[in-house]
UniProtKB/TrEMBL annotation:
This is peptidoglycan glycosyltransferase. Pathway: Cell wall biogenesis; peptidoglycan biosynthesis. It comes from Roseibium litorale. InterPro entries: Beta-lactam/transpept-like, Glyco_trans_51, Glycosyltr_51/Transpeptidase, Lysozyme-like_dom_sf, PBP_transglycosylase, PCN-bd_Tpept. Keywords: Carboxypeptidase, Glycosyltransferase, Hydrolase, Multifunctional enzyme, Protease, Transferase.
Length: 739
């Protein structure tokens, strides 16, 4: 049978027969393969998306079905709602905590954070005599294993019994402290772990804020992650402040017991461990009974913690530690604290000091002036504190070039280490007005310029004078002498408050001044040391007087690594000499005829300005002579009002007592631009030799002085080689000598 060729399919036909459409539908094999590959990818993606969507849909349907079946009621529903909200707000809170922690973590970036600002400094006064020590020796002085076991146990029992269990924060201990404090109605237990306290000592300040506590917690975790428990404990023992200006148990052992820390007894260890809570309150050289009572509590803690038995501590209870008697040590604690901070600042720009951290520093400190400053403050407060409702005073005295010679940071260093002379920020009141007048003088005004003392209103604010009335047109000299309020406000309007701020900064104010309507009346906070430095610019003729307390620094090898005269640049002129002379003339007039008459020193030209703030919260007197400058502040730490304490009363009295003593038997330097005779002030010679006659007594009447001179002449005739000294009232001394 013969097959018809037409019945053959394409697969059986002649392969040479051309495809339909002349071959236009033919596709190359490689192009067909690539297209199929793309189609495969598209199909895979579509399928994956479809399956994913189906999975999610089934999951949501299942979750929805579960919720329909889950019908919580009553307490379970409330717990579920609370749990849900807790998770949500917990997440938000965690983010906020991280934001708070970021600034704290910046401190850990320093590669030498373990040793940053650690110095062992021996301080000398300006004459080379030792006045005290500050700082701590680095961590390798006494290894942890050589510190007595009794001291380690006393520390842990008192500060952190679960130290080796927790990871930086003891949540159980914190909860227990909260309960005990609530039960007692006050703070009787601290909730911070030992690691948290170390974090504060290393990186933070003592401010009591929520932000600081959050930073402290994160830094505690960081310390636990980067150090061993033994390293943390060792750092804590070396860094804790132990009162008396010493840091660490090694220094405290030598200071309080005059012995090496390795030799401490159980009673002594308990007394040292009791200092962590409040070193100034329980320091044995200040309050030995309180220190012993606290040590007894520490022994109880050791028994309760299971570290010792009652039988093991009974001996320490019956025979408490005896501390070295330092009641006669009159250490300039506030000055030493400030001087140590100055050393730290200096180390940032003197590489040799940054390397040699065991140094001896000769300071500008004058022990005689410090003693008189302490006496003046204590005498005035003792006589007036109760009656005038004033509890605190602070003082900074310096030479006109800025060398700090005395510093009183508060009435009692034992009760409060806060240095009000340096760290307190208070409103200066009218003592700020010289900045306003000086700015006016540099912008076309003069002391003879007349400005009306009349009512003025700025945006609803109307300043009033202390007297309650107005004087009409007055000269600027008269206005500043009488401390009129409306005149500096008008001057500020005329010259611009921004220029006043620039003048204050140039003269020595370092804290930010708020430009406000009340700025000319001293409404912005300043520090006492800054006010003294600013007025020193008047005393030295117009040069910036940056406060300094370090004259020379030598390392352990005796090499001088810093010398103030050698390494510091010359003072920069910031005020015109002629304008300074005009201001000095006015401020002398304030003391002679104005609000500061109590600051007058017989035979010495003195200048200055009083300041009293609203409601008598702050009282100031900042004054100077050609030899010394001092700023005195009085008030209360809690900003409560005093009983009408003004700058011209108690502060001026303190200033006068100190300066009257400071100018005994010294060569007087005149205030630039001031003629003593214009104020009928008879001063002793500016320069004299040892053989010249000593100045006449300042506190005697002329008749009494004449009698003493006659006695002196008689003594010369009777005993040519005998000399006598007659002690005069008020501390003046008349030397009657025979040649």
């Amino acid at each position: 049978m013969v097959e018809d060729d037409k019945s053959k399919g394409p697969e059986h036909g002649d392969s040479s027969q051309p495809p339909p459409n002349g071959g236009r539908d033919a596709v190359p094999r490689n192009r067909r393969s690539f297209g199929q590959f793309l189609l495969g990818i598209d199909a895979f993606v579509d399928t994956a998306l479809w399956h994913t969507g189906s999975f999610l849909r089934r999951g949501l349907e299942g979750y929805d079905a579960f919720l329909r079946r889950f019908r919580a009621r009553g307490i379970w529903k409330a717990l579920a709602e609370i749990g849900s909200e807790s998770v949500t707000w917990g997440a938000v809170g965690f983010v906020i905590l991280l934001a708070f922690a970021q600034p704290a973590m910046e401190a850990t970036r320093s590669s030498d954070w373990r040793t940053t600002d650690d110095f062992a400094v021996t301080f000398l006064d300006r004459f080379g005599k030792e006045i005290g020590k500050r700082g701590i020796v680095l961590n390798d002085t006494v290894p942890l294993e050589e510190i007595p076991d009794s001291l380690v146990k006393a520390t842990l029992a008192t500060e952190d019994r679960r130290f080796f269990v927790h990871f930086g924060i003891d949540f159980l201990g914190t909860f227990r402290a909260i309960v005990e404090n609530a039960r007692a109605g006050g703070v009787v237990q601290g909730g911070s772990s030992l690691t948290q306290q170390l974090a504060k000592n290393l990186f933070l300040t003592n401010e009591r804020t929520l932000g600081r506590k959050i930073k402290e917690a994160y830094l505690a975790f960081w310390l636990e992650a980067n150090l061993t428990k033994q390293e943390i404990l060792k750092l804590y023992l070396d860094r804790a402040y132990m009162g008396g200006g010493v840091f660490g148990v090694t220094a405290a052992s030598e200071f309080y017991f005059n012995k090496n820390v390795r030799e401490l007894t159980l009673a002594e260890s308990a007394m040292l461990a009791g200092l962590y809570k409040a070193p100034t309150k329980y320091a044995p050289h200040i309050n030995l009974p309180a220190a012993r009572a606290r040590a007894n509590e520490v022994l109880t803690n050791m028994v309760q913690a299971g570290f010792l038995t009652e039988g093991q501590v009974i001996g320490a209870r019956r025979h408490p530690a005896v501390a070295v008697d330092r009641s006669q040590d009159q250490l300039p604690e506030y000055f030493l604290d400030w001087a140590l901070e100055e050393v730290k600042k200096l180390a940032r720009r003197v590489p040799a000091l940054a390397r040699d951290r065991i140094v001896t520093v000769r300071t500008t400190f004058d022990p005689a002036l410090q003693k008189q400053a302490d006496l003046a403050v204590e005498t005035v407060l003792r006589e007036n504190a109760a009656e005038r409702d004033v509890k605190e005073a602070a003082l900074t005295a310096m030479t006109p070039d800025g060398a700090v010679v005395a510093m009183v940071g508060g009435r009692s260093y034992g009760e409060s280490q806060f240095n009000r002379a340096v760290n307190a920020l208070r409103q200066p009141g009218s003592s700020f007005k010289p900045f306003v007048y000086m700015t006016a003088f540099m912008n076309g005004y003069s002391p003879a310029s007349i400005v009306p003392d009349a009512p003025i209103s700025i945006g609803g604010w109307s300043p009033r004078n202390y007297s309650g009335g107005f004087s009409g047109p007055v000269t600027l000299k008269n206005a500043l002498t009488r401390s009129i309020n409306t005149v500096p406000v008008r001057l500020a309007q005329a010259v611009g408050r921004d220029k006043i701020v620039e003048t204050a900064y140039a003269m020595g104010i370092t804290n930010e001044l708020k430009i406000s309507k009340s700025l000319p009346l001293g409404a912005s906070d300043v520090s006492i040391i800054d006010m003294a430095a600013s007025y020193a610019t008047f005393a030295n003729g117009g040069f910036r007087a940056a406060p300094y307390g370090i004259l020379e620094v030598t390392n352990g090898a005796g090499q001088v690594i810093y010398d103030h005269d050698r390494d510091e640049v010359a003072a920069k002129r910031v005020l015109p000499a002629d304008k300074v002379a005009e201001m000095n003339d006015i401020l002398v007039n304030v003391v002679q005829n104005g609000t500061a008459r109590r600051a007058q020193i017989e035979g010495v030209v003195a200048a200055g300005k009083t300041g009293t703030t609203s409601a008598y919260r702050d009282a100031w007197f900042v004054g100077y002579t050609g030899n010394f400058v001092a700023a005195v502040w009085m008030g209360n730490d809690d900003f409560t009002s005093t009983r009408r304490v003004t700058g011209g009363s108690l502060p001026a009295t303190i200033w006068q007592i100190l300066m009257n003593y400071a100018h005994q038997d010294i060569d007087l330097t005149l205030i630039p631009g001031v003629d003593p005779e214009a104020y009928h002030i008879t001063t002793k010679a500016v320069a004299r030799t040892e053989e010249e006659n000593r100045p006449a007594p300042r506190l005697l009447k002329r008749q009494t002085q004449s009698v003493l001179e006659e006695i002196g002449e008689a003594l010369k005739a009777i005993a040519p080689r005998t000399s006598a000294a007659v002690q005069l009232p008020g501390g003046a001394e008349d030397g009657v000598s025979a040649q």
